[in-house]
Every structure is written in structure tokens, then in C-alpha cells.
Design goal:
420 residues; 7 strands; 59% helix
Length: 420
């Protein structure tokens, strides 16, 4: 068990007399031991040489060593028990006035005052300096009332020098120490926040890379899986030849996309021009590729572009819309039964609406497995643009038609809340 003494020092407490244990006093700091020993030896040396601060007192001779020894012992606890040390030091200084006086006692008293402000509690650090000012004023007024001479002012100056000066010096040092500690804590917090930001940036970049890799390669790999399964199951020469042609086309395209992505990851220079991002102008070729791939599965694809001739879309919105359509077509090729897949684009002044509707139900024949990563990637893309996303089976308005699978995304093209 530990008990905090002062501001920074913790000392072990193993028990007390009341509970049958043994009270262990805090071990003095090495610097405090040196100060105590130096003060005691200095005071003894001054006494041996007959150097005193006053004469004709009530207790001459060896009595001057009593307050000297008492105040030197308080130096040992100036850090761990500053208030107790200050009280004992004040009593020792008063007792020293009844002896011939020692300069070492006065010097150690100033150090105790300084330590009480520096190592004491915050409330003590606020009260002690002003208490020393009040004490100096009282000493000055009392000396003037008693001596009624200008020499009384000297006593006030001496009282201020041994109390007010050390107290306010302790305040300055304590404020500087607290400011340094606060700066250190701020530096640690800044480093921690920087590390958190770095970790979040790395996580976000890894998620972005995963989305890009999935969107670029999944379409080609799905086509390869579907046509290879068809070629193995149908065992028709013409079908097998067509499937191999589609497989080769998609594998070459997938390898090209992979090489481009790997090249971007390896290239750390800034002189290389970035690869062009896909745009909605390439949707025709994307739908045509899906039409070719899905012909053997009985799927047809229709593109309805109702955007009109509005202003161009922001690049992030256009790329997100392209990837959503690409992933939706890939999912339709993997899971949809025979029927029509419709891709619809519609733009208002505030948003771009993307909707892909495909047949929903059990699919006969070969189908490619899915992991659900595509839906997660689409939802993340829409969330990054502060848009709205939904995907799932829907029924016709009259409830009589077959179910369809609908992917719908609304991507803001400008900040909301503006003037209509």
C-alpha cells in the first residue's frame, strides 16, 4: 500500500501501531540528506568558531545547537511532509531567538519555506506566500511599536528576506514546473492523437484498397467462374469454345487491372500520372460486357440513362456510381435467374439516383459463390459521400408480380441545405 505525501512523492505504509503493524517512515531524498548534513555541519562550525547572530540572550552556549539540530532534521522531510517541516522550522527559528543565534538555522528556515511552497499542496502554495507577507508586516509594526526607531525597519526587511523571498521564489519555480508538466502531457496527448489518426488513416486506406480490388477484379473472376462451370457441366463443343473465349477475355482484363493496382502500390514517386478513374461514360461498355457474359444464363441487360444534359458530376460521385453499377451487375451475373436486369440513372439538382433491378429467386444451373463483400463495399462508398443506400428483395406494387432484387443509391452532388 502506498500513501501520497506532498505532490509527487509516494511512500510505503505497511501498518501502524493501532493495527499491530509497524509504521515505516518515508526514506529521505538524497538531496535532502545532503542539505541537512551541510546545514548541521555548517552550524556546528559557526558555533565552534564563535560566530553568532546575536548576544546577551537567555540561553547561551550549547543551547544554540538545539534549534540547529531540530531544523536540520526537518530538512529530511522537506519533500515528503512539507507542512510539518514548516511548522517545526518556525518553532526552531523562534527558539533560536532565545539563544545566541546561528546563521545556519536561519538559512535552513528559508529553504524549508521554499520547499513548503514547492512541494506542498496547491492550497498551501497559495496561502504560504501571502502568510509570509502578513508575518513580515506584523513583525515590522511590532518592532516599530517596541523600539520606536528606524532600526525597526531593518527587522521587517530581514523578516521579509527570510520568508517572503523564499516563498515567492517557490511559487515561481512551482509554476514553471507545472507548466513544464502540462506541456509534457500535451505533447503526450498530441503524440497519442497523431498515432490514432495514423491508425485510422491506415485502416481507411486498407478499406479503400479492399473496395477497389474487389470492384476491379470480382467482375472478371465471376465471369470466369460462371463460364468455366457452364463449360464443365454442359459438355458442348460450341459452348465450351465460347466459354473459353470469355474466360480468356476476363482473365486478361483482370490481370491488367491487378498489374495496374500493384503498380500504383509499388510506385512511391509523384512524377507518375494517376490512372484515370472510371466514369459513367463507360457504362455502355460495362453493360455490353455483362450482356455478353450473361447471355448463356438467360439474362438480358438494359441501360436507362435519364440524367439529361446537366452540369458534370463530381469525380467521387461519378466513380462511386460506376462502381455501384459494376458490383450490381456482377451480383446479377452470379445469383440472378433468367430475366431482365435494368440499370437506371436519374439526376436531380441535389442528387444522383442509381437503381439496378434484377430477377430474384432460385437460379438453375451454375452459379458463382458470394461472400457479401460487394454489398459492404457499396454501402461504404455511399456512406463516404453522405448518401443513402438500400439493397434487398422487393415485390411489385400490386403484390402480384414476381420478386426482384433492387439496389438503390442516392449520391449527393452538392451540399444539402442550400437555396432551392
Amino acid at each position: 500500500m502506498y500513501r501520497r505525501l506532498g505532490r509527487y512523492v509516494e511512500v510505503p505504509v505497511h501498518g501502524s501501531v493501532l493495527d499491530g503493524g509497524v509504521t515505516v517512515f518515508p526514506r529521505p531524498h538524497r538531496e535532502d540528506v545532503l542539505i541537512s548534513a551541510a546545514g548541521l555541519l555548517g552550524g556546528v562550525l559557526l558555533w565552534a568558531l564563535g560566530l553568532h547572530t546575536q548576544g546577551g540572550r537567555v540561553l547561551p552556549g550549547l543551547w544554540v545547537l538545539v534549534p540547529l539540530v531540530a531544523i536540520s532534521l526537518t530538512e529530511l522531510v522537506r519533500r515528503s511532509a512539507p507542512r510539518t517541516a514548516l511548522l517545526v522550522a518556525a518553532l526552531s527559528l523562534v527558539a533560536d531567538q532565545f539563544t545566541q543565534g546561528s546563521l545556519a538555522t536561519v538559512a535552513m528556515f528559508t529553504d524549508i519555506v521554499y520547499a513548503a511552497v514547492l512541494y506542498g499542496s496547491p492550497s498551501a502554495a497559495r496561502r504560504i506566500p501571502w502568510g509570509t507577507v502578513l508575518l513580515s508586516v506584523v513583525v515590522t509594526v511590532a518592532a516599530l511599536s517596541w523600539l520606536r526607531s528606524p532600526e525597526a525597519l531593518v527587522l521587517g526587511v530581514v523578516a521579509a528576506a527570510i520568508s517572503v523571498g523564499p516563498a515567492f521564489t517557490g511559487v515561481l519555480v512551482r509554476n514553471h514546473r507545472d507548466a513544464a508538466e502540462a506541456a509534457r502531457l500535451r505533447a503526450q496527448q498530441t503524440a497519442l492523437l497523431a498515432e490514432i489518426d495514423r491508425t485510422q488513416a491506415v485502416t481507411a486506406e486498407r478499406a479503400r484498397m479492399a473496395r477497389e480490388l474487389h470492384d476491379m477484379v470480382a467482375n472478371h473472376l465471376s465471369a470466369i467462374a460462371i463460364h468455366s462451370t457452364a463449360a464443365l457441366s454442359l459438355r458442348d463443343a460450341r459452348t465450351t469454345e465460347d466459354a473459353l473465349a470469355v474466360i480468356r477475355e476476363n482473365s486478361v482484363a483482370g490481370l491488367a487491372e491487378m498489374r495496374r493496382l500493384i503498380g500504383l502500390l509499388r510506385d512511391s514517386g509523384d512524377d507518375r500520372e494517376p490512372a484515370p478513374a472510371p466514369t459513367l461514360g463507360a457504362l455502355d461498355s460495362l453493360v455490353e460486357q455483362a450482356r455478353t457474359t450473361g447471355a448463356s444464363s438467360g439474362l438480358t441487360f438494359v441501360l436507362e440513362d435519364r440524367r439529361g444534359e446537366d452540369a458534370p458530376l463530381p469525380a467521387p460521385v461519378e466513380m462511386a456510381a460506376y462502381r455501384i453499377v459494376q458490383e450490381s451487375l456482377t451480383n446479377a451475373l452470379k445469383h440472378a435467374p433468367r430475366g431482365q436486369v435494368t440499370v437506371c440513372l436519374e439526376r436531380s439538382r441535389l442528387a444522383l439516383r442509381v437503381e439496378v433491378v434484377s430477377p430474384y429467386g432460385d437460379r438453375p444451373g451454375p452459379r458463382a459463390p458470394g461472400s457479401g463483400a460487394g454489398l459492404v463495399g457499396m454501402r461504404e462508398r455511399v456512406a463516404l459521400l453522405d448518401g443513402e443506400f438500400g439493397a434487398g428483395p422487393v415485390t411489385a406494387d400490386d403484390g402480384a408480380g414476381p420478386k426482384t432484387w433492387r439496389v438503390r443509391a442516392e449520391l449527393p452532388v452538392e451540399e444539402r441545405g442550400g437555396t432551392p
